[in-house]
Amino acid sequence: MIDLRIKVEPLPIEDPLIVRLRNEADDLGPNDAILIGTDGARREYDFQGFSLTLHATDGVALDNDVIMVLPGQASARRLIRADSQHNTFLITEQCDQLCLMCSQPPKKNHVDLFAELETAASLAPTNAYIGLSGGEPLLHKKKLFSMLLSLAKTRPDLKFHILSNGQHFDEVDIATLQEIGPERILWGIPLYAAEEELHDTIVKKQGAFDRLIQSFAILFEAGAAIELRTVVMRQNDVNLPALADFVGTALPFVERWAIMQLENIGFGRMNWDLSFKDTSVDFDNLARAINIATARDVPVQLYNFPLCSVPVRYRRIAAASISDWKNRQEPFCTSCSARQRCGGFFEWYDHRKGFRGLGPI
Ligand code: SF4
């Protein structure tokens, strides 16, 4: 697993520090630290005349990475890995839903780091694609939109993928969304069933389905791009064909429909035995749903499905969707000819409780 934290020697700081690590001293800005020496894992940087010392595994490239050092912490967060397309900022850990499969269960407190995250984004490589996730980022909508508006002006090349539960869009947001630039954001928004009661039960919030439908109308009016996301579970597997029908009829404007496998962490792990649907041995409802959506011209993608768990006919829509830092393969993958194309497994996948129908292709 790629380490998203780097050990840092203590600094006498009172506020969070955003630093871009540079190997070359050209065109330095106020947040740039320049590498002045390495000694094994120890890397020493000059930052505004002070020494900043990190301990990173040998061979890890840090040039142009952006890190955040918090007061009193012995490790820095790697907010931007310059050579990766899988950089995500955690906006908040608060959320107003309690989804059965949530991989990042909500917490009560919010640590406001919008100013720091905006600085970090402004230091990202050209054309970077940054994920914003939570919790529910739109619980802090005013600050989030203000950050996006500001970055739209200073870094119009950046694009964002924002995960949201779709419970907080209002009509007054349409103008703001248009000002930020609809082409700049892909909204990843979950819908688990076409049946109001089932969706509300899965996200554990009464009225969530209705509010979501209102939000889709607002996003449609704003011209926003939507990645509709549905996690397959035992609770909704049989309802997938009806959901495909609904998506094709009521939401044909979505950019794509991402149908996802369960992640074995957070509430997903807690509810694994009740919720994990082994689609490697029973793909029937999913296949019907894909066929219906495809016939309605809705682009479908499968996320988090190992390639060999998917019938041959549908493998072309199975994306290698698991972020590089949390991705791995199983021992039996060694002899597989599809290793390069396959999305593999989450680092925390437990094969003893997982897919029963896998094997090298
Ligand atoms: S054997 Fe491993 S690499 Fe091959 S398709 Fe299955 S999960 Fe992917």
UniProtKB/TrEMBL annotation:
SUPFAM superfamilies (UniProt xref): Radical SAM enzymes (SSF102114)
One Gene Ontology biological process: heme biosynthetic process
The keyword S-adenosyl-L-methionine belongs to this UniProt entry's keyword annotation: yes
Organism phylogeny: Bacteria, Pseudomonadati, Pseudomonadota, Alphaproteobacteria, Hyphomicrobiales
Limits of the Radical SAM core domain: 91-247
Swiss-Prot/TrEMBL cofactor(s): [4Fe-4S] cluster
InterPro entries for the chain: Aldolase_TIM (IPR013785), Radical_SAM_PqqE_MftC-like (IPR050377), rSAM (IPR007197), rSAM_paired_HxsC (IPR024032), rSAM_sf (IPR058240)
Keywords: Iron, Iron-sulfur, Metal-binding, S-adenosyl-L-methionine
Protein name per the record: His-Xaa-Ser system radical SAM maturase HxsC
PANTHER family named in the record: PQQA PEPTIDE CYCLASE (PTHR11228:SF7), RADICAL SAM DOMAIN PROTEIN (PTHR11228)
NCBIfam families recorded: rSAM_pair_HxsC
Domain of life: Bacteria
